[in-house]
Design a protein that fits this description.
Layout (H helix, E strand, L loop, with lengths): L9 E10 L5 E10 L11 E6 L4 E5 L15 E4 L2 E9 L6 E9 L4 E6 L12 E6 L2 E9 L4 E8 L8 E8 L4 E7 L5 E5 L3 E5 L6 E7 L30
Antiparallel strand pairs: 1-2, 2-3, 3-4, 5-6, 6-7, 7-8, 9-10, 10-11, 11-12, 13-14, 14-15, 15-16
Protein name: F-box associated domain-containing protein
Length: about 240
C-alpha cells in the first residue's frame, strides 16, 4: 500500500472491476481528492490501483485528472471492462459546471470521457447517479420540488455513441421513494425509501412491493455479478436476501 499518508482532509473515490481477458485479476482503483467543507477542490487527485491477486497497491504517475467529484455523492458502475463515474468540470468565467462521465479501463489503466445527452448537461451533479440496466450504461436524473419529486432514467443504447442516449421513462417518487438502487431482471426498479426499506417498483403498472429488506436509504447497493472460475484468497461469504 502507498506509504504516504494524507496530511489534510481527503475524499476517496473507488472503482472496482475485473480484468479477466488479460490477467484473470480484479482491480480496485482509488482516486484521492483534497477537499474543503463544500466541494472537492480543483486539484488533480492521486491515483492508486490495488491488484487483488498480488495484494499490492501501486501509484499511477504521469496521469492528471482534471475532473472533480462532489464529496460523499459519487456513484460508480462497471460495464464493458470499464469503470464509470459522474464527474464535473468548472467552466471558466462563471460558466457553471460541465457534467460528464469519466471512464477507467481496468485492463489498460487508461482514463477517458463519455459525454451526456443535452437534457442532462445543466443538471447539478448531486442530482445524477450512474448504474447498469441490463448490459447498458444508465444515468438517473432526480428532480425535487417542495411538493413534487421525480426521476428520469436515461440509457445509452449503443456504448460510447452519444446519439444513442434515450430516456426510458420518468417516475414520480411516491410512497417515500428516495433513490434508485438498481434494476431487476424482470424490468422492475429497486428503490430505497425514507422509511429505510427496499421496494420494487413496476414502471409499467406504477405499483410497488416491499421486499422486507431494511437499511439506511444511502446504504443500499446493487451490482450485477459475473460468474468466474477465478479463486480469490480468503474466506468466501454467502449473503442472504439476494434480489433477482
Amino acid at each position: 500500500m502507498p506509504s504516504s499518508k494524507p496530511q489534510s482532509p481527503h475524499m476517496f473515490v473507488f472503482g472496482f472491476g475485473s480484468d479477466l481477458s488479460k490477467t484473470d485479476d480484479y482491480k480496485l482503483v482509488r482516486l484521492v481528492y483534497r477537499k474543503d467543507d463544500v466541494v472537492v477542490n480543483n486539484v488533480p487527485p492521486g491515483i492508486e490501483i490495488y491488484l487483488i491477486n498480488s495484494g499490492v497497491w501501486r501509484r499511477v504517475t504521469g496521469v492528471e485528472i482534471k475532473h472533480c467529484m462532489m464529496k460523499f455523492m459519487w456513484s460508480q458502475t462497471f460495464v464493458n471492462g470499464v469503470v464509470h463515474w459522474i464527474m464535473y468540470d468548472v467552466v471558466a468565467n462563471g460558466g457553471g459546471l460541465q457534467i460528464l462521465v469519466m471512464t477507467f479501463s481496468i485492463a489498460d489503466a487508461v482514463f477517458g470521457e463519455i459525454m451526456l445527452p443535452d437534457a442532462l448537461v445543466g443538471v447539478i451533479p448531486t442530482n445524477l447517479s450512474i448504474m447498469l440496466f441490463e448490459e447498458s450504461l444508465v444515468v438517473v436524473r432526480y428532480e425535487k420540488e417542495i411538493y413534487d419529486a421525480s426521476c428520469e432514467v436515461w440509457v445509452m443504447k449503443q456504448y460510447e455513441v452519444l446519439e444513442s442516449w434515450r430516456r426510458l421513462y420518468r417516475i414520480n417518487l411516491v410512497a417515500d421513494m428516495e433513490k434508485v438502487v438498481g434494476f431487476r431482471n424482470n424490468g422492475e426498479v429497486l428503490f430505497s425509501t425514507r422509511s429505510n426499506d427496499l421496494i420494487s417498483y413496476d414502471p409499467n403498472s406504477g405499483c410497488n412491493m416491499g421486499l422486507c429488506i431494511q437499511g439506511s436509504y444511502r446504504s443500499f447497493y446493487v451490482q450485477n455479478y459475473m460468474e468466474s472460475l477465478i479463486l480469490l484468497e480468503g474466506n468466501n461469504v454467502v449473503l442472504s436476501n439476494v434480489v433477482d
